[in-house]
Amino acid sequence: MKTNNKNTTKKTWIQYGVFALIAITLYATGLHTEVIGFAQRGLLATGVMNPDVKELVMAQESANTTDAPNLTKADMNFNLLDSDGNVTSLKELKGKVIFINLWATWCPPCIAEMPSINTLYDTVGDDVAFVMLSLDRKFETAKAFNERKGYGFPIYAPADAIPEMYNTNSIPSTYVIDAKGNLALTHRGMADYSDPEFIEFLYSLK
Q: Which UniProt keywords apply (predicted)?
């Protein structure tokens, strides 16, 4: 009986050791973020994290028929560094619907929503400007991650101070600017942006 107990205890410690080794390896390689992000996609699939865009669509339709004095103008005075080292500005995107997403490779919820953003980009990328703004300390880290994942959307790093309107301690954070330069959406946290209702919302902003 004692022998069986010893064997069971030994097996338990071996299992703990294997789990610990896996955990250490994941953290050492930085892959723990992707593992956690992958697990969080199950929550995204429920749709409970998505922004409620139905009212926003109605408000946008109303704005298209009125002067809409209560709409907030987006701050376009923001310079961006693209993955080729060129500096551009939000001003250059004026007149287009703009999807801005603040993310980082160390942020599991950011990683969780990335596939849906890439699907969104494949769907509306010809009509909507994407600004995937990396907050990684080293932009090279973000570029290497994006290349490894094979995502098609363009990524940027801040070329100067992030305007107060987009400055947040909570990521991922997403902002949508309509074609008239109004801030149409602010969403804190992850979401499934490939949702048909969200796509309809973006098209309503043109």
A: Membrane, Transmembrane, Transmembrane helix
